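job 3f2a | input accepted
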Amino acid sequence: MNKLDLLYDALTDKLWSQHFYNEQFLMIVNPIARNLFARLRDEESQHVLTLHRAIAAMEANPFPPSRILPGLNKNPRYRL
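job 3f2a | predicted structure (80 res):
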């Protein structure tokens, strides 16, 4: 499993947690508990945004040049 797969797994987990907290927020009547679930939901949404940014950054730059041209590190005449 590579880093991108791990980020997607974490994103899926965070989305499910956000969904759970939102469902609890809608069902609970106690204002203190509602506030807690709203804060937890909002915190998860921040995590989701962070993971989306990390995934987008990794997908935008999938391979460093040294992986495409393995001789790049060994032989300096192949400079980009």
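job 3f2a | Residues 3-62 form one domain.
job 3f2a | closed
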